[in-house]
Amino acid sequence: MGIRSFISNMIARDNYDEVMEYLAVTETQHAPMFEFDNAPEQLRELISMAETPRSTERSQWLNDYADKAWALPDGEVEVLLAKDHLNVVRYLNRFLRSANAKLKQDGYFVCAFDTAQKRRAQIFSRYPRFFAYIIYFFDFLWHRVCSKIKLTRRFYYFCTRKVRKVFPRPEVLGRLYYCGFDVVSEQYIHDRYVVIAQKKREPSKEQPTYGTLIRLRRYGKDGKLFNVFKFRTMYAYSEYLQTYIYENNDLDIGGKFFDDYRITEWGRFLRKTWLDELPMVINMMKGQMKLVGVRPLSQQYFSLYSKELQELRIKTKPGLLPPFYVDMPETLDEIQESERRYLEAYLEHPFRTDWKYFWKILGNIVFKGKRSK
Fold first, then answer.
1. Average pLDDT over residues 89-111
2. What is the rounded distance in angstroms from the CA atom of residue 200 to the CA atom of residue 181?
3. CA distances (Å), 137 to each of 31, 143, 148, in order?
4. What is the pLDDT of residues 308-339, one digit of tens each?
5. How many CB atoms lie within 10 A of CB 38?
6. Is the pLDDT of residue 352 over 70?
């Protein structure tokens, strides 16, 4: 790139409308659209009104609809609309829990928010690219970091007269699942991201974390669930989207989820270098894992395995170095067969099997550069 091209690139601004058209396609690529069966008439009417051009009449109709629904007693609402977009709600989980309480079982909750990608598009369309990178960096620190860390959260709200949080799409979807909803539709309406969720259960009582070090519930020996320690590679609340991602994305080569948008850019680097798994040493020190062994699986992923292999898996501790790196299987069936061979050999000759697998895994990773996706 020549100097003139570099300067032109640095003073250029993104076209906001073009970026939003791009996001409307990419952010909903693996999302269910509003085409599900047996939707109540008032939900169809609500979405139809929301899709009309912006006007004073449209805003008034939506506000009146939201006010009437929220005024009804708990447990009696069939379709509920969030009057404000979620970015301005200070205590979002508390708000989503109250929405869950308002609805009947299988009732629908409609909400909208501005995604982090839209926020970036706004900044890069407003300022020359050189300044946009700087502004975006500090905007990220202020709205997405300071608003969530305990040490700075109070200071953030003290300085911010009007709450204007910035949410990545996976975080909002994960919060909805955490608060007892299933997502049935995602789409952009105008330039705002709209989600239709359905009440399926009571909100979770687990304590989610924003921290760098996270704890994930996984199956261990004897089928007991334990907390696996890892460095965060996904957006907050992503762990609650496991089933949703599987239903809409399926599995890719190597058994991972295809096009998993929950993973951050920093997270992809950590995964590629295995740095995200270093905290599992804590699990080894606590006697919950060993060095070589099958991966510790989530409840959702564990349910995909055959009953025979499930019973075989829980006879041993999971490991930090899985047999995956010996065989490099590509499909779920191949992964199960690879693990079955290892487990049967391990149960017959524990030390000899782990010793042999350790050196094969080390050789494949270090000298042959084998990686999982």
1. 95
2. 5
3. 29, 10, 16
4. 999 999 999 999 999 988 888 888 889 999 99
5. 5
6. yes
Give me the mean pLDDT over the 243-251 stretch. Answer: 77
Give the whole-angstrom CA distance, residue 16 versus residue 118.
9
Cβ–Cβ < 8 Å for 239, 171: no
- List, in order, residues 6 or more apart from 93 with CB less than 8 Å away: 175, 178, 179, 203
Fold held by 3-117+150-199: Rossmann fold (3.40.50)
Beta strands in the chain (DSSP E): 77-81, 103-113, 181-189, 192-199, 213-219, 225-231, 290-292, 319-321
Q: What pTM did the predictor assign? A: 0.84
Q: State yes or no: pLDDT of 222 exceeds 70.
A: yes
Distance CA 113, CA 110 (A): 11
At 12-60, the pLDDT tens digits run 888 888 988 888 888 887 777 766 667 888 999 999 999 999 999 999 9
Q: Specify the amino acid at residue 152.
A: T
Do 305 and 336 form a contact (C-beta atoms < 8 A)?
A: yes
Q: Which two tokens stand for residue 151?
A: 């040490």
User: What is the Cα–Cα distance from 61 to 51, expressed in whole angstroms?
Assistant: 12
Cα 206 to Cα 214, 216, 371, distances in angstroms: 13, 11, 33
pLDDT, tens digit (0-9, with 9 covering 90-100), for 143-189: 888 887 878 888 888 887 777 888 999 999 999 999 999 999 999 99
Q: For residue 222, give both structure tokens.
A: 């004897």
Which is nearest to 85 in space by CA: 65, 110, 64?
Answer: 110
Lookup: tokens for 119: 């926020």
Delimit the domains of the chain by residue range.
Answer: 3-117+150-199, 213-366
SS (H, E, C) 244-272: HHHHHHCECCCCCECCCCCECHHHHHHHH
Please check whether residue 342 is in contact with residue 323, taking contact to mean a CB–CB distance below 8 angstroms: yes
